[in-house]
Amino acid sequence: MALHYNIVGATSSSVELVAPRVSQSITSILFTNVHDTADATVTLFIEDNPSSGTSNKYNIIHTVNVPPDTSLLLDNKSMLKYESKYGLYIEVGSTDTVDVMIGTN
Fold first, then answer.
1. In the sheet that 26-33 helps form, which strands lie side by side, from edge to edge?
2. Distance from CA of residue 97 to its chain's centroid?
3. What domain count does the chain have?
4. pTM (2 d.p.)
5. What is the pLDDT of residues 21-52, one digit of tens each?
6. What are the backbone angles phi and psi of residue 24, rounded to the nearest 5°?
7. Max CA pair span of the chain
8. Based on the number of CB atoms within 10 Å of its own CB, is 99 exposed (0-12), middle (13-18) or buried (19 or more)?
9. DSSP state for residue 49 in the 8-state scheme
10. Domain harbouring 76, CATH code
């Protein structure tokens, strides 16, 4: 099974990909910059309770530039393994559009 998202930077500062307390066995994440002339900036992180104002946030990747018409694949399962109390979130630059495909077991 896979999860698919189209993330547009102008619509939100961060987007929830997997909610906290939802158990997912993630095997890979593919980020595709769909813009044909500009880099996209991607930050992927886990956070335990974003609405509390006192959450714990840990970056998996932080402000990584993905060149135009290019994809970035994260497929190290140990890097993508985290406790179910955390949710998985993405932030992209304000003018970026990034397609995200999450492979799961």
1. 2-8, 97-104, 26-33, 71-74
2. 12
3. 1
4. 0.91
5. 888 899 999 999 999 999 999 999 999 977 77
6. -130, 135
7. 38
8. middle
9. -
10. 2.60.120
Structural domain including 61 reads 2-104
CA atoms within 13 A of residue 95's CA, in its CB half-sphere: 6
Contact residues for 8 (Cβ-Cβ < 8 A; gap 6+):
92, 96, 97
- The two tokens of residue 5 are 């998202």
All residues at 6 or more sequence positions from 36 whose CB lies less than 8 Å from its CB, including other chains:
68, 69
In this prediction, residue 1 has a pLDDT band, given cuts at 50, 70 and 90, of confident
Between CA 40 and CA 29 the distance in angstroms is: 16
Q: Which of 8-17, 36-45, 81-90 has the lowest mean pLDDT?
A: 8-17
